[in-house]
Design a protein that fits this description.
homodimer
């Protein structure tokens, strides 16, 4: 069975990712690919990736943060290969994300981030960024597992339909299940699985911890 | 002679950019390449680009906005080909741009943007973003020609040494020379030159307008 887990891959080896995808296929919900791999190889070379696990969601984590005509061209290029593309809400709507109306079902919008530096910058705007996301009406949003109060706020302001993806589990310190209990749909884990000696074993361990945490928080409510 | 102009190229044709670079070489200070081209081809394929005008600055406008280990891997990949890489200040320092200490001479940091949507988001943080830039100590920063007061503030807070690159001239509405008069070192022009029937003629026209504006604002002070 598949856990509510998305694998974050920020390295540049195509072979390693392809092997990883075959190994974890059916056990995780998707694979989130970072800019380093895309820049190293170009999107054409990434086409065969999806066939290594076609039932998973393939997400391009480009975190595009530019004006409308650039962000549109970026997203269009990536959707030739990926199912979803991640963009930043912090560039705003008018003259930026408004250019993506036709592909809103393929978008995931970052409304807050997990690292300390974000608290002095991006995360101070979280309410404004949630309003940007409300206008974009994307398939999903990204809110950090390290800040469950922001996941809760996101669910409260954006409603039940949008998917919430939460990074920060593992290397960045959040416990598996924390974000799910706060209202997220998926938790994103990178290095704790990608660099594990036995990635499938790491997935199962983290996945079971997720399910156990959800059982506990549901019975507490 | 070379005008204080940087060409922004956000299309995906390598041939068109290569031709453009040969044609404008010696007349402009550099070429700023957007994400669509990099994603389409991958950085290896961009290697021969520089030889189409080796005396120009080649700037990768990836606008990276991610946590430290991803932004580092992104910048490292791009510096194999480009002279400078553009990153966003809006992700903050700790856990993000602090990962780039060793390459600060190759960085250009976005502290504000030119489109209307930025005023409801990113630009509200401009003082915090200038403080992030102050910690990074990059070669250059990006501040919009459409908002000369932000260019002035940038020069005032960051001092004389940092290069200021100003987009927004041409298609986005700022007049050539406006940002230079406010303290910028270079103005960035994209579509008004890239899509011109005669790009070199467009460069000369915009370049002469720059020089004339600078003459006027210098004699007024």
């Amino acid at each position: 069975m598949s856990y509510p887990l998305i694998i974050a891959y920020d390295e540049t080896s195509l072979d390693k990712l392809s092997e990883l995808a075959k190994m974890l296929c059916g056990h995780v919900a998707g694979f989130k690919v970072g800019l380093p791999l895309m820049l190293e190889h170009g999107v054409k070379k990434l086409r065969e990736l999806k066939s290594s696990c076609s039932k998973a969601l393939w997400i391009a984590d480009v975190k595009a943060a530019d004006i409308a005509h650039v962000v549109s061209a970026t997203v269009t290029t990536l959707l030739r290969v990926f199912d979803k593309v991640i963009v930043h809400a912090v560039v705003g709507y008018v003259g930026a994300l408004e250019g993506l109306k036709d592909v809103r079902e393929n978008l995931v919008v970052v409304v807050a981030m997990s690292h300390p530096g974000a608290d002095e910058t991006l995360n101070r705007l979280v309410v404004a960024l949630l309003k940007v996301a409300e206008r974009v009406k994307p398939w999903g949003v990204v809110a950090p597992a390290t800040k469950p109060e922001l996941v809760r706020l996101t669910r409260q302001l954006l409603g039940q339909e949008v998917k919430i993806l939460s990074p920060g589990v593992g290397a960045q310190g959040a416990r598996p299940g924390t974000a799910l209990c706060a209202g997220a749909d998926f938790e994103i884990v990178g290095r704790a699985i990608v660099n594990a000696v036995e990635p499938l074993k790491a997935v199962k361990k983290i996945g079971e911890e997720q399910l156990e945490a959800v059982r506990r928080c549901r019975s507490a409510n």
